[in-house]
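Structure (tokenized):
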């Protein structure tokens, strides 16, 4: 009896060897009934039966030339990984393209919101400083409207200088055109006078033939001025509330989120704002430094319109790698028409000097802590933004890419434990000790 019991326990399927199969296991008609035994994944038949089933399944897979997911078995593993990354990159590219197209449709609102964020990042520290002696409302009004009056005064000064020197500049440019013609006719160019006269006639004829098109472009430009004024008014309105109570907007937005996602959104939002504000303040410092240096050089060289050209250099510096050379090229043309080729060559050399100073001194000192992008990434961002949205896209491309990279780094790094008690609210977005970053813009944890 004992030997028989042991033999019974040793046989597969004998009583006592384990749980019995379900009563309806194996039932069914035809192929469907046989297939129903093994539809549950993770259950492997024991012994030779399982091996036979796996061998038969492998033979069927080899017969149709693929694995269970329908992917051919002869595909390289590296190619599979590359294909997986490729379609994900295509999805991300399509999402970025859709975002730019939506912003293009809502260009007026997007530009106004971007300007409001720029103004807020610059003037909020000023308002926080004034709030030590004034209530929050008057401090916000003084910082915002005082800066607005200062900007309008500077623009009116530049306009008055240009209007006052228009007659003299016209005479200088007319004489400068003659000097340029004589310079081209001489050594080393030796351009024929008849060819220059023919070129001048063609330019005059082109302007005469396309006068109506130029006039319509000017009228459409007047319509664009109205849009610019509307965007400026909307930006001023948004800036007033962002400077006064920006943290309230952020806490209101967080209250709309699920409680489990609030910490993640808080880290991402603070990293984004820290990078955007740092980039904005840094690029203003870089632009002001470039403008001061170029203005001093133009004044010493006696180039007319030195102040307007300085202001042009300031605004052009907001487009990295491209804006400053374009502004100096305009200054070179003005210097060539008014002061001659020698002064023009000196102004042209400023492109190299300012570019080297900006790339090797100002950017590492001012922007390295807020923006950590390779120059190739910056160049591609500027070109891509310009292709998709023109000048506005070229201006906003680098800060948008910087913010996206900062958010990625903040979410990739584990958060530092909050030393505050659980009931204490989080700090403001700026202007207080609670704003000290828990994560660096590059994604590295703060030590």
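Design, position by position:
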């Amino acid at each position: 009896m004992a030997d028989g019991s042991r033999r019974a326990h040793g046989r597969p399927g004998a009583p006592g060897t384990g749980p019995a199969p379900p009563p309806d296991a194996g039932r069914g008609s035809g192929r469907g009934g046989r297939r129903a035994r093994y539809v549950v994944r993770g259950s492997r038949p024991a012994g030779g039966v399982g091996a036979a089933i796996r061998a038969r399944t492998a033979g069927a897979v080899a017969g149709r030339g693929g694995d269970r997911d329908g992917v051919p078995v002869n595909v390289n593993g590296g190619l599979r990984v590359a294909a997986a990354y490729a379609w994900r990159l295509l999805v991300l590219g399509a999402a970025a393209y859709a975002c730019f197209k939506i912003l293009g449709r809502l260009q007026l609102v997007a530009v106004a919101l971007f300007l409001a964020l720029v103004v807020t990042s610059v003037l909020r520290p000023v308002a926080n400083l004034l709030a030590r002696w004034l209530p929050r409302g008057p401090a916000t009004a003084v910082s915002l409207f005082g800066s607005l009056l200062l900007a309008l005064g500077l623009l009116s000064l530049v306009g008055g200088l240009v209007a006052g020197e228009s007659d003299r500049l016209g005479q200088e440019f007319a004489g400068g055109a003659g000097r340029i013609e004589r310079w081209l006719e001489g050594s080393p160019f030796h351009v024929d006078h008849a060819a220059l006269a023919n070129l001048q006639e063609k330019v005059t004829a082109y302007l005469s033939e396309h006068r109506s098109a130029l006039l319509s472009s000017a009228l459409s430009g007047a319509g664009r001025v109205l849009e610019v004024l509307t965007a400026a008014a909307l930006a001023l309105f948004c800036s007033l509330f962002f400077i006064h109570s920006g943290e309230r907007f952020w806490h209101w937005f967080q209250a709309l989120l699920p409680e489990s996602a609030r910490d993640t959104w808080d880290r991402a939002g603070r990293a984004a704002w820290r990078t955007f504000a740092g980039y904005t303040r840094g690029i203003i410092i870089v632009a002001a430094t470039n403008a001061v240096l170029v203005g001093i050089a133009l004044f010493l060289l006696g180039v007319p319109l030195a102040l307007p050209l300085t202001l042009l250099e300031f605004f052009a510096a907001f487009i990295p790698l491209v804006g400053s050379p374009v502004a100096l090229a305009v200054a070179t043309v003005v210097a060539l028409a008014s002061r001659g080729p020698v002064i023009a060559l000196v102004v042209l050399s400023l492109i190299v000097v300012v570019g080297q100073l900006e790339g090797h001194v100002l950017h590492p000192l001012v922007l390295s802590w807020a923006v950590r992008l390779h120059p190739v990434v910056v160049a591609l961002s500027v070109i891509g933004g310009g292709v998709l949205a023109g000048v506005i896209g070229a201006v906003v491309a680098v800060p948008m890419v910087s913010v996206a990279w900062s958010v990625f780094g903040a979410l990739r790094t584990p958060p530092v434990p909050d030393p505050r008690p659980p009931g204490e609210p989080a700090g403001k977005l700026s202007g207080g000790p609670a704003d000290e970053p828990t994560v660096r813009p590059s994604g590295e944890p703060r030590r």
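Reviewer-requested clarification: The chain has 14 helices and no strands. The chain has a mean pLDDT of 74.
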